[in-house]
Amino acid sequence: MYGGLKALCEQAAEQVLPNRVLVIRPGLLVGSYDYTDRFTYWVVRVARGGEVLAPGRPSRYVQFSYVRDLTEWTLRIIERKETGVYNANCLPNNLTMERSLEECKIVSDSDASFRWVSDNFLMQEKVAPWSEMPLWMPEEGAPHLKGFMFINCNRAVGAGLSFRSLNDTIRDILTWRETRRLNEELKAGIDSGKEERLLRKWHETH
Questions:
Q1: pLDDT tens for residues 101-160?
Q2: Which of 37, 123, 173, 199 could form a disulfide with 188 if both were Cys (CB 3.0 to 4.6 A apart)?
Q3: Could you give the CA distance from residue 194 to residue 187 in angstroms, rounded to a whole number?
Q4: Separation between Cα atoms, residue 18 and residue 86, nearest integer Å
Q5: What was the pLDDT predicted at 18?
Q6: Which of 149, 164, 190 is nearest to 44 (CA)?
Q7: Which helix (H) or strand (E) element contains residue 24?
């Protein structure tokens, strides 16, 4: 429904201001001050170290953008008075879940190890996609989610959208969390007790 409302808003704006509307469609945004903690969870959890419950296939692609990259680019194209529709996200088929977590480990100098568990196991244990396991959507049994993190953003890239390194993004998030929100409970991610229980069950059955 939310996507439908956005489409209606875009159509209404175009009707009132034909050929003069700039529409930016961002994907998942991450970074400092993210009140959802959807990527922050992984940065913090990996920094804590130990065995980390990791969802699905390690080689599964994910797609998200650092909010500062989007903000800086948006200001530039507004100043240029650009119009049209832009999907504004990082490149699809470029970043895997495994690399995302490994980069978190490198930046935080953590001793974390990753226990990759199957989609079926997570679904059987009623782990909530996207909230308890941020960036994870089951690949089986959810055809409506195909293409969810494979959005083509060539037009935005052609208009100057660029991306800083994943290391920089993670480092900024980690610094913000450690200096501003060290003792605050995360808004996303699996409870530590539940994670430990699931890890034990996975080891017992696999």
A1: 999 999 999 999 999 999 999 999 999 999 999 999 998 766 666 667 889 999 999 999
A2: 37
A3: 16
A4: 16
A5: 82
A6: 190
A7: strand 22-26
